[in-house]
Write a structure and sequence with these properties.
The chain has 974 residues and is α/β, with parallel strands linked by helices. Helices cover 43% and strands 12% of the residues. The strands form six sheets. The chain has a six-stranded antiparallel β-sheet with strand order 12-14-13-16-17-15, sandwiched between helices. Strand 24, helix 39 (947-957) and strand 25 (962-963) form a beta-alpha-beta unit. Helix 8 (220-234) runs antiparallel to helix 20 (518-537), helix 21 packs antiparallel against helix 22 (610-625) and helix 29 packs across helix 40. The relative contact order is 0.08.
Length: 974
């Protein structure tokens, strides 16, 4: 055992806990039981079978209010694996549920037996026919697909609010739609073809001209059964008319019975039935979409009304004017949205009765946009709008930032409102539709019903399509609260069906919470046809039982999850999963959501239980050590939960007093540490990579892998011992070369000025000279200590750098330009909590400017570009995302290169200072997709603006990345 191996006990929750009724039981502490584990391992290989109790727990939750612990999780790589899993399940009488993003709001992504993760190895998009179509794999997010299609002026029809995280497999399997899709742009209408695996293992490609012939040969009974059901439905004129009427408004409750009317052959029928089947008919391995035009001329307004019913009454007018989206938000939603960055703070003061419509028009050209704006103005003129707070304008705008802010608030409905719910409560998201003409009446009835049952719910929705969402919070640990929810659901479902003839699920699909009410909406005849359809396609009931069809009238009350309180920073989490695609460790160990889910399970356990012990043993590496600490999860989370900060705090909790003292000592003596590090890097050139790898590898085993960095061949040579000479007289800014740029040099193959030389030279050329203080050695942005949770060292260095910067900049009169984005972030923001009161005042007077912003905003307008490179690929760092200066990176690069590309899969490299040297597997996993995209072609330049991230990308791609400011110096060199 390493000398300084941390003790798992340090992370044991301190609160005295009693056992929760829905905890994982002691007999599950060993994980997947035999022979299940052994048989699947033999079938698929050990790397594809996740069996530890921590694996099972982290997959037990999704964005829904339900929680079911699987027996095992398998991670297939291809269709052969899928077929093998289904064959095994048939032979052993087991059940299978597919899970991709886990953003389902109704428990569709949860199973109690074999859970199949189809996210990790199932990503990718191929653009067809110049963008008219796209072939997309099921683990690809909607946002990722649209990023590629945008280059062709196209996009997908479905546009759910969870597009940042939800994947194509789930979107099609649930027939999710969103803000603009309605009934004409959803998956059912825009899917051209599907490739899927039936429960029997038969693979069907509906685009294959011979598909029906092949299916008839492989599955004759299936084909006969489907055609018999089609004939029976078509022979019943009343049922046929009822089915057609049900899909005149949005409806995802039950199976798509209109597939029997729209398809003439078994394959065509199956193509329709698979859409919205929620994983109960087969596994969708590939989807070909007919894409839609991306109309770039956008005009939007956020219009405020005195009441929800007044807002709902205005919806038909905007529909008639041609609006592509009319989104409704009630007062609770608007007020909760203040937790979302960029939303006006005064929305918190909005009267509870206030409601708003987000109205958007999109046109392909300027004349079309102007025509829409005239139509919108005519509608607005006839409305009685209100302006209850100063930020309300009630005006249409073309300004991209304002429009983005409106949509950010709207899309955060579930997470923002859910994040503001009382601690310890479970969140239910309901979704229903009524004919748009009855929307105002439905709103009024819904509000009255909520009040009768004691719920202060939030309401929002796609008003243009008569589709409303509302949220309810209750304590699933209290039987009385569960009974209250059950009574509300009974009344709500009867109201929707009997009064409005509406859809109980408009776009979120049936799921566990509406399955018991399916017959109430569809009637016994249509419901029985759905059961028979399931029997024809999946006669053994292998796939996703109880998710669409369930005869238990209380099935929606089974498996409701408790939400025990955890650390304050994470407690608002509703487990939506928006954070997961941005997380560097998502394909290696755990995601931010899973880190919180595991922590909650610890809180459900009694002190010292076998399950808690197993979870703690795994948590150190899976959650704490392999968190990059980049906090991109905070950017993706609509309520700004920073799981990275929580992991840093856990690192601090694991430190011994001795480790804290050593870390503080290095901070106090950093000038000597810095000099020694530079000398060591210089000596490494003479020693050789192989010997250094061996020595550091032995040291890591002896001390602790999370403390001793591993030497990597990509580490560059040492920086020059002396920084460029500059003058304080006449300086336009103080230039602070980050310690990484004072220790490490540029790429080994680089011929030209170093980064400090380049910054000095290019600033002088622009007539804005910079000054480097003589005493920068021994100072640092404090990120070294902050990222590892060394609070004492962090305090030392944070205060030192602020005091020094205040003196260098003459009390803030000059800006402080920092040449590494992570260091800019550290000095500008991350040091603040560790400052003394006096130094916090000094910090407020500082103007800290990232070198990218300095170059783009101050230097470029004064520079003459003399030469350009042909093509450049960029790596925007996570710190740039936090600072909001990715566009400045692009601007500087575009001045230096004829072609500039930001990879669609660009993300945090997870090098995170030295974490890529502590856990190189983390960087390898985090950069895999971006590296593949970068290496798909050649570029003339590989650019970023953070030395350690550049080293990480060097290792990932085999290319040499360098700072865009070095490229700017070359482009402007006389």
């Amino acid at each position: 055992m390493p000398l300084l191996e941390p003790k798992p006990e340090a992370l044991r929750p301190g609160a005295v806990r009693s056992a929760s009724h829905d905890r994982v039981l002691d007999d599950q502490a060993a994980g997947t039981p035999e022979p299940l584990r052994g048989e699947l391992t033999a079938l698929l290989g050990p790397e594809k079978v996740l069996w530890k109790v921590s694996d099972l727990v982290k997959y037990a939750s999704d964005a829904s209010p339900y929680r079911f612990v699987p027996q095992v999780v398998v991670v297939p790589e291809d269709i052969d694996d899928i077929s093998a899993i289904l064959s095994y399940a048939h032979g052993k009488g087991r059940e299978v549920v597919f899970r991709a993003a886990g953003t389902s709001l109704n428990g569709q992504a949860q199973g109690e037996d074999i859970l199949v993760d189809v996210r990790h190895h199932w990503t990718g998009i191929e653009v067809l026919d110049d963008g008219a179509q796209a072939r997309v794999r099921p683990g690809t997010t909607v946002m990722r697909a649209n990023a590629t299609l945008a280059r062709y002026g196209r996009l997908l029809g479905p546009d759910p609010a969870s597009a940042i995280a939800c994947t194509i497999g789930g979107v099609v399997a649930n027939n999710a739609s969103g803000m603009t899709a309605g009934t004409t742009r959803n998956s059912y209408r825009t899917v051209s073809s599907l490739t899927f695996v039936l429960p029997s293992g038969t693979v069907v490609d509906t685009a294959d001209p011979a598909a029906d012939e092949l299916l008839a040969h492989a599955e004759p009974r299936l084909c006969e059964g489907l055609l018999a059901l089609k004939a029976e439905i078509e022979a019943d004129a009343e049922l046929t008319a009822r089915i057609r009427a049900k899909y005149e408004i949005k409806n995802t409750n039950g199976y798509r019975l209109d597939a029997f009317l729209d398809g003439s052959t078994p394959v065509q029928i199956l193509r329709g039935l698979m859409v919205g089947s929620e994983g109960t008919f087969g596994f969708i391995s590939e989807v070909v979409f007919d894409t839609l035009p991306l109309d770039r001329k956008v005009s939007s307004a956020l219009l405020f009304f005195p009441s929800l019913t007044a807002a709902a009454a205005a919806v038909p007018r905007f529909n008639e004017a041609g609006a592509i989206a009319v989104e409704l938000m009630d007062g609770n939603t608007l007020r909760a949205s203040v937790s979302v960055q960029g939303v006006p703070a005064d929305w918190a003061e909005l009267p509870k009765e206030t409601a708003a419509l987000l109205v958007e028009f999109r046109a392909p050209d300027e004349p079309g946009q102007e025509a829409y704006e005239r139509a919108a103005a005519a509608v607005v003129k006839g409305l009685d709008l209100v302006s209850p707070v100063a930020s309300v304008t009630n005006e249409f705008t073309r300004e991209t930032k304002a429009i983005s802010g409106y949509w950010k608030a709207r899309k955060a409905f579930v997470t923002a409102v859910g994040g503001s719910r009382p601690s310890g409560t479970t969140l239910i998201t309901e979704d229903f539709a009524v004919p748009p003409s009855q929307l105002a009446d439905a709103c009024e009835s819904l509000l009255r019903l909520q009040a009768e049952h004691g719920f202060d719910a939030a309401v929002a929705g796609h008003a243009a399509h008569g589709n409303l969402h509302f949220l309810l919070a209750f304590d699933a640990a209290k039987p009385s609260d569960v009974d209250r929810y059950a009574a509300f659901m009974d009344d709500f479902c009867r109201l929707t069906v009997e009064r409005f003839d509406g859809s109980l699920k408009a776009e979120h699909a049936t799921g566990r919470n509406i399955a018991p009410f399916l017959e109430l909406e569809w009637g016994p005849k249509a419901t029985e046809l759905m059961w028979r359809t399931k029997q024809v396609i999946d006669p053994d009931g292998v796939l996703a039982p109880r998710i669409v069809l369930d005869r238990d009238p209380r099935a929606h009350l089974r498996g409701l999850k408790t939400i025990p309180e955890v650390e304050l920073i994470a407690d608002p989490c509703i487990e939506c999963g928006f954070c997961e695609p941005t997380c560097p460790s998502e394909d290696l160990t755990t995601t931010p959501r899973q880190r919180i889910v595991l922590r909650r399970e610890m809180m459900r356990q009694p002190n010292g239980s076998p399950v808690e012990t197993e979870l703690l043993d795994a948590y150190g590496y899976d959650a704490v050590d392999t968190c990059a600490g980049d906090s991109t999860c905070k950017l993706a989370c609509p309520v700004g939960i920073d799981t990275g900060a929580m992991m840093k705090d856990f690192r601090h909790q694991r430190h011994s007093p001795r480790e804290e003292r050593i870390a503080a000592f290095t901070a106090k003596n950093f000038k000597a540490v810095e000099a020694s590090a530079r000398l060591a890097v210089a000596a490494a050139d003479r020693i050789g990579d192989q010997l250094l790898e061996t020595v550091t590898g032995l040291a890591r085993k002896a001390v602790r892998p999370d403390l001793v960095p591993e030497w990597l061949p990509e580490i560059p040579g040492a920086a020059a011992r002396k920084l460029p000479r500059t003058s304080r007289v006449g300086a336009s800014a103080v230039y602070y070369p980050a310690c990484v740029n004072r220790i490490f040099g540029g790429p080994d193959g680089h011929r030209g000025p170093s980064l400090p030389q380049a910054v000095v030279a290019v600033s002088a050329r622009a007539g804005k000279p910079v000054w480097i203080p003589e005493d920068v050695a021994g100072t640092c942005c404090a990120t070294i200590w902050h990222s590892k949770g060394y609070d004492e060292g962090n305090v030392v260095m944070a205060n030192r750098i602020v005091e020094a910067a205040w003196g260098w900049t003459a009390g803030g009169r000059l800006p402080l330009v920092v040449d590494a984005s992570s260091c800019t972030l550290g000095i500008a923001h991350e040091v603040v909590p560790y400052l003394t009161d006096e130094n916090r005042e000094l910090h407020r007077e500082l103007s800290i400017v990232d070198s990218l912003v300095w170059a783009a905003d101050e230097l470029l307008p004064e520079l003459t570009i003399l030469r350009k490179t042909g093509s450049a690929v960029l790596h925007p760092t996570c710190s740039m995302q936090h600072l909001g200066d990715v566009e400045q990176l692009r601007a500087v690069a575009e001045a230096c290169a004829e072609e500039v590309v930001v990879p669609d899969d660009a993300g945090c490299c997870a090098f995170a200072g030295d974490r890529g040297m502590l856990h190189k597997e983390l960087t390898a996993s985090a950069t895999a997709k971006e590296a593949a995209e970068v290496n798909s072609r050649e570029y003339d330049a590989y650019l970023s603006a953070n030395r350690m991230c550049e080293i990480g990308m060097d290792r990932a791609t085999g290319r040499e990345y360098h700072s865009v400011l070095m490229e700017l110096e070359r482009a402007t060199r006389p």
